[in-house]
Structure prediction request, 134 residues.
Amino acid sequence: MSNPNRKIALGLSAFTLLPVGTLVTFFPASLYALNGRVLDPSAAMMSEIRAPGVFILLAGVLALCGLFRQALEGPALLASAGLLLSYGIGRLISLPLDGLPPVSLLVAMGIEVCLGTWCAVLYADRVKLSGQFA
Prediction:
């Protein structure tokens, strides 16, 4: 039986990851411009930007699938937690090394850490209750 909190967390993950992944993959210059950054339009730079965008997009698809298929709920929570926490922790590490980014990136960091932690806690609770790691 699925916990409603898991569905809410996966819905928020999908709502967050799908648009961000889509923007990074297909419209990176527009997304980066929102934070005052201008991307080098070289093929090498665009390849480096778009590659993690597809990963974010696929994690969003998995989160969406986890909403509707209980068999995918565990993997979706784990993927959401891993991706969101890796971005959030990366931004935290960047603060003392690089200084304060724009407010929009600080908000993103807060969302990533909070939602990622929630997904991790829900995943751990699911494993504890079911005894299964998937």
Observations:
- Residues 4-130 form one domain.
- The radius of gyration is 16 Å.
